[in-house]
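User: Hello, can you help with two protein structures?

Assistant: Certainly.
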Amino acid sequence: MKIIIACIVAAIIAFGISFGLGYIVIPFLHKIKFGQTILDIGPKWHKNKQGTPTMGGILFIVGTVVAFGVVLVIDKLLGGNIIEMNDIVADSMRVKIYGGLIMALGFAFIGFLDDYIKVVKKRNKGLSIIQKTVLQIVLMVVVPLFSCSVIKLIKRKNNCSRRISENCNNGEHEKINRSHTA
C-alpha cells in the first residue's frame, strides 16, 4: 500500500514539475531560437510554425526522473524499503522499476537526437522514419531482454543462497568442514 501512495504522490509531483517547467523552458527555448525550421515548400499557413520550440520532451523527462527519486524517498519515509529489501519479489520489482526508467530515458534520447538534428543540422525532418523505428525497436528488445536476464540471475542467486542456508541448518556444514580438515 505504501508504494501505491508513493506512486500517486510521484505522479502528481511529476505533473507539477513538467507543467511548471513549461513556463520557464519554453520561453528560454524561444529566446535562444531553439526552434524548428520550416521549409518553403508546403502550405503558407505551415510557415507559422517557424521557430516553434523543440526539445519540449525535456520537461517530461525531468519530471519523471524527479518523480522516481520522490517515490524512493516517500517509500523510505513511510517505512518501506524498496531499495534495500532482499527478497526475490523486491529484487524483481527493482529491476522492473529501473528497466522502466532506462526505457523512458532511452526514448527521450531518441527524441532528443531527432530534435537536435532538426535544430542544429537544420534538417527539417530530423531522424528518418526508418532510423527512429530501428532505434525504438532496438531499445524495446534490448532493455527487456537485459531485465529478464538480470531477474534470472537474481533468482539463481537466491536459490543458491537458500540451498546453502538449508544445508547449514541441517548440520551439513560440519560434515563439509570435517572433510576439508581431514
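That covers the first. Now for the second protein you mentioned:
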Amino acid sequence: MSDPRLESFRDRLSSDWSTPRLSHYTAEWYGRKRQRKVRSAQVVVPILIELAHPASVVDIGCGDGTWLSVFREHGVGDTFGIDGHWVAHESLQIPAESFLRADLEQSFSVDRSFDLAVSLEVAEHLPEKRARSFVEQLTALAPLVLFSAAVPFQDGTGHVNLQWQDHWARLFAERDYLASDAIRRSIWGNADVLWFYRQNAVLYVRRDAIAELPGIDASMIVSDLTRLRVVDPELYLDKAGKVEKLRYRQPGGLEKMRDRLAAVIGASVRRSKGPGS
C-alpha cells in the first residue's frame, strides 16, 4: 500500500498530483515533449538493437508512438503500440493499424508475441493493485522488456504508484525475468537522454532467453536488486532546491520535511523484501 505520509508530502511539492491519470497527457503535451523523447530514443534504440537485434517491438503505453517511430527509422518494421482513448489518431507517429486502444488499468489482449516489449514511465500512472498483473502482461508479450517507472518523490501528472526500481524487479523476478543494467550504464550522464530514462530504465530478460542474446552477458545481470535504486542528479538537484524553499518559507518546514522523508524511507526499507510483504 502507498504510504499516506508520502502522499501528503508530495502534495505540498507539486500542484500536479491532484490531476487524473493518463488521460491528461494530451496531444499538446505529446507535441511539446516529442523532440526530447525522440532524442532519448535515438540514443537508446541503437543500444537495444545492438544488444538484442529485435525484429518486432511492442510499446505498452506508447503515447503517440514516438519511441516506435525511432525503432522504425532503425529498420524495425514490425512495431505495435498500445495506449488509451486520449491518443488522437492524427497525432500518431506510427501507422494507425499498428495501434490498439486499451485501458491500461484493465487487462488487455494481444494475440501474438514480440521480440521486445517497451513500457516507459507508464506503470506509475496505474493503481498499485494493477502492478503485478501489468508486469505479467508485459512478460507475456516478449522475452525482453525495457521498463521504467517513476520512483518516490518523482513529480509528474497523475502519478499514483511510485516505487523504487527494485520493487518492480521483484515483480519481474516472479515471472523469472532477470534485471540487467545494460541500458542505464550506457546512458548515465548522457544529456541527450531525459533524466527519468537515465534513472529508471531497466532491461528485463527472461532467464531461458539469455543464451539467445549474445549482447547480454552475466556482468550485466544485477543480482542484488537493491543496487537498482538510483536517483539521477537532475532529480536530486530539483528536490534540493525545493528543500531550500521550505527552509526559508515556513518556520520549521525543513524539520517537518526531514521527519516525513525519514518516515517514508523507513517504510520503504521495511517493504524492500518484496512486493506485498
